[in-house]
Records
---
Amino acid sequence: MREEELDRAATILRCGGLVAIPTETVYGLGANALDARAVARVYEVKGRPAESPLIVHVCSVEMARGLARVWPEGAGALAARFWPGPLTMVVPKREVIPDIVTAGLDTVGLRLPAHAVMVELIRRAGVPVAAPSANRFTGLSPTTADHVRAAFGDALDMILDGGPCEVGIESTVVSLAGAEPVLLRPGIVTREDLEAVLGRQVRVAGKVEGAHPSPGMHERHYSPRTPVFLVRDGRLPPGRGAYLWMRTSARAEYEQRMPSDAASYARGLYGALHAADARNLDWIAVEPPPETDEWAGVSDRLRRASCAG
Ligand code: TXA
Ligand code: MG
């Protein structure tokens, strides 16, 4: 990445523009988190309903603490262990963050990403950056700059290309704003990882209704256009048409071999779905992964992408 590109992106953010930015999880659609009008454009361009709060990205723990009204017990330990990295912590927010960022909630999701481009950009802009995944609402998240271009064309002020995302699925979201920690969205940082650091149980959120779901909690989120079916026991339904079968033991031409470890699978998942989606298939079959804690993030995204979602 060239210096001038980062400076131009920082200027665009400070002036209220939108920049697609690489992170280690997925590409984000970034705006100055302290500028309500810039954030309104994020919702508009994405086609995202106003009741879905955005994650605010920071370049340091100090910046995060400056945005939190309370720094809950456990936040320091989680930040020390998982930041920079794919963990978002929901904490009580300060008034400096406009209501539109948090969909009117008095909490804010904060994340210090592990990607040099995003962190350096925030540092140069000098403001925290609100960024949902850089896809249209309900679409698949982007893990390359080309995915972002395909979704938005010229609708953004700038797209920074930082190469393919290393983690590949969105951050784990944990709320520390209530009496007990709650896992709002599973990811590569697992519930057991969180419990080990916090030294206490983390409850898994049930389906959230009403005004403050994790956006990940809308049904049929993260979907390709092509219908996705989870196929158990290796039994494909009859009347197949053209399809691709994503499984760990793939052999045939219409099958795609997927990695058998969760981290590699997550890294390749959206790329594989984007590619399958571009082939005009009738459907995509996916073998469901093991039902263990380390696969929870991948399983969650597959379930939401699928018709069973
Ligand atoms: O990995 C990621 O988290 C990516 C990259 C760009 O950082 N961002 C991302 O943003 O996935 P988005 O908007 O697609 O998902 C944000 C998630 C949603 O599930 C949302 O509900 C949750 O974070 N969230 C944000 N603020 C919240 C809050 N105050 N209370 C509860 N959930 C919140
Ligand atoms: Mg998203």
---
Amino acid sequence: MRIEHELKLGFKDVLFRPKRSTLKSRSQVDLTREFTFKHSGRQWKGVPIIAANMDSVATFEMAKALAAHDVMTAVHKHYTVEEWQEFVEGSDAEVLKHVMVSSGTSEADFEKMSAILSFSDELMFICIDIANGYSEHLVEFVTQVREAFPDKVITAGNVVTGDMVEELILAGADIVKVGIGPGSVCTTRVKTGVGYPQLSAIIECADAAHGLGGRIIGDGGCSCAGDVSKAFGGGADFVMLGGMLAGHDESGGEIVEVDGNKFMRFYGMSSQSAMDKHAGGVAGYRAAEGKTVLLPFRGSVNYTIQDILGGVRSTCTYVGAAQLKELTKRTTFIRVQEQENNVFGKE
Ligand code: 5GP
């Protein structure tokens, strides 16, 4: 047994130190980033925020709504090939450029993903996602997908340490998804005791990825726009959001009325709800590692995404970053033991 004594940090443990700036207004801040990906060589320009591949978040409707804000959606993997075909045929290149095709790591997943990708070359992103990215199986699958699709941008995860980021990038991933346990409907830390505070995971994994010309997605744990900024400040190239984009018209969750008030059901992809829906129940050898919650229904996602982008722009003006790309260079985090003042309740 070993103990690592260095304290690891979450978003709640830091704030940005403000810095002198020549920026007059947040309208001067450019939130788009331009990447040329390591293996595929594909170029992409847009706002590097991604709706998480959860079936009560990342629907086709969400993809259309967020593409209008230049934001991405990792469409969940439970649509049929026929539904994908209809979506691809009915969407222009601008929407498809903002879409990731999610996949598990079975042979059936590979066949399905291949069929979906054949519908359009504009579908350039693959998101290979398993809860425990430390499995050797993920590395083998990434190698297989890289050989089959040399010109697609491959995202793989989830992991939280630099060694595994490097291994996935060397196996063919352009982008590694980082996060184990921080999610809003995730119970992995409770069920297994496994996890890594998300800000430290981002800082350490970004360093490992950037050293090899790879990129990372900070996935999970953002509860407000300030957390999104902190993820970018820590070095995340992309930030993935589940809970913050759930509960909207476009999220596709079931609407429930309680005492005349509208709520939307939101659940983790390893929750009892998800497994009942997609796998005929929780298999006898495993425990659910996600929960189901009711969120107040929030209407269209347009206002929410504008609010998030406005918050990140404002962070950039506080630290003097004219472009999102500069945010991490302009970031000094101070460690704190307080965040917002909740005397009148939470925002
Ligand atoms: P959020 O933005 O809601 O904090 O986190 C979203 C992320 O939580 C997802 O992208 C995914 O990585 C993770 N996640 C989603 N469902 C589950 C689940 O059932 N269990 C666990 N452990 N993580 C989940």
